[in-house]
Design goal:
Helix content is 67%, strand content 0%. It has 191 residues and is mainly α. Helix 2 runs antiparallel to helix 5 and helix 6 crosses helix 9.
C-alpha cells in the first residue's frame, strides 16, 4: 500500500473495533470533508516526495548506510535478506527515481520550506489543519514530517543518525511552529 491516502484507507478498513475514523462521520459541512482530502493530496504531492528527496539527496549514493537500517526496520528475516541482496540495485533506483543530483537537496528544501510556511499559516490560532478535530489531514502532515520533527513517540526517527549536515538542518528546523505541532500531535495521538 503506497501513498498516505491509500494507507489510511487500508488502516481504517482493517482496524476493526470501535475506534473513531479519521474522516469524522456526520460532518454537516461537506466542504470540510472535501478540504481534508485536498489538504491530504497537497501534502502527499508536495511534502511527501520532497521529504524523501531531501533526505536521499544527503545520503545517496555514498552515505546510504544511514538510511538502509531504517528501510528494513521491523521487517522479517526474508525481507531483510532480500533487501540486502537487492541493495545495490535499490540505491541506483532511488537515485534515478528521485532525480538525485547536485541541486536536488536545495530544490527539495525550497519546496519543503514553502510547505512548512503553508502549514504554519493553516495552523495559526488552531490545533488542527482542517476543522476542530484530529483528521487524516493531521495524520498525513505529522507522519510525513516526523523524520524532521523527530518526536519521542517515534524512536525510528528520534534515534536515527544522519550525516552532520542533515542533522544540522533538522536542528535548524526543530523550533519551527510546524515541527512543534508535529511533536505535539505524536504526543497527544500516538498510543
Amino acid at each position: 500500500v503506497e501513498g498516505s491516502d491509500a494507507i489510511i484507507d487500508w488502516a481504517e478498513a482493517n482496524a476493526g473495533g470501535d475506534k473513531p475514523g479519521l474522516c469524522p462521520q456526520g460532518l454537516s459541512d461537506e466542504d470540510l470533508s472535501d478540504e481534508i482530502g485536498k489538504t491530504e493530496a497537497r501534502l502527499d504531492k508536495r511534502a511527501g516526495i520532497n521529504v524523501r528527496r531531501f533526505i536521499y539527496s544527503h545520503v545517496m549514493p555514498d552515505k546510504a548506510h544511514y538510511v538502509k537500517p531504517m528501510l528494513f526496520a521491523n521487517t522479517g528475516f526474508v525481507h531483510r535478506l532480500a533487501g540486502n541482496l537487492m541493495w545495490p540495485a535499490c540505491k541506483k533506483l532511488i537515485v534515478k527515481g528521485y532525480k538525485i543530483n547536485a541541486g536536488s537537496a536545495g530544490e527539495a528544501r525550497a519546496v519543503l520550506e514553502e510547505e512548512f510556511a503553508w502549514l504554519e499559516g493553516r495552523l495559526a490560532g488552531q490545533d488542527h489543519l482542517v476543522g476542530n478535530t484530529f483528521t487524516r489531514a493531521d495524520l498525513t502532515a505529522a507522519s510525513l514530517l516526523a523524520p524532521f520533527a523527530r518526536p519521542d513517540e517515534m524512536p525510528l526517527y528520534r534515534d536515527a543518525i544522519f550525516p552532520d549536515d542533515l542533522m544540522a538542518t533538522f536542528a535548524e528546523w526543530s523550533d519551527r511552529p510546524v515541527m512543534q505541532w508535529v511533536r505535539r500531535i505524536y504526543r497527544d495521538y500516538r498510543n
